[in-house]
Amino acid sequence: MVFRFTNDQDKELLRELIRLKSFVAVRGTTLRVWSDVAASLSSAFGVEVNVKQIRDRLTLLKQMFKDSEAAAALGSGIEESVDAVNIQSHYDEREGLVRKYVALEDHFKSEKKAVKAKKQQKDEQLAMLIVVMPTAVFLVVRQYQVPHHERHGRHQNG
């Protein structure tokens, strides 16, 4: 028998994903987080649900949400902001939960990109220092170097 998610099960799925924030999981622990979600939902639903079913359902819910946002933007001519809707008032609605999950996921991804960009900028600056520094040191040393003939006494002619 094929398992089909109901609206209430979708909401339970989304609440659990929001609670555990699967997108924040550190590399190597992601499967454990998804397995925890599957175990929790299986217990709540009274039916075995596996990780693939959950991930596939989340992907579908997010796609349906994005499609509905795009359709709303086309209809009104204005793109709706994820923050424009009071998420708390929609916490019991599936679309509100998807909106909250997507907002959290997007925020985490943008924070992660910002940290990565900052690190890359620091690395580039450090690399530049490594390239420039030896040349600068060489020039300073050369400037203060005593000429060879002055170091070893006066130049002796014959």
Task: State the gist of this model.
The protein is mainly alpha-helical and 158 residues long. 70% of the residues lie in helices and 0% in strands. 11% of the residues are buried.
Q: Strands, helices and their partners?
A:
Elements: H1 7-20, H2 30-45, H3 51-76, H4 94-144, H5 148-151
Could you characterize the architecture of this molecule?
The termini are far apart. It is elongated and about 95 Å long. The chain has helices at residues 7-20, 30-45, 51-76, 94-144, 148-151. The longest helix is centred in the C-terminal third of the chain and has 51 residues, at 94-144. By secondary structure, it is mainly α. It has one domain.
Descriptive terms for the model:
158 residues, elongated, single chain, mainly alpha
The 3D shape can be described as: elongated
What is the number of helical segments per DSSP (H or I, 4+ residues)?
5
Structural class of the helices, strands and pairings? mainly alpha
Radius of gyration: 30 Å
Low-confidence blocks of residues: none
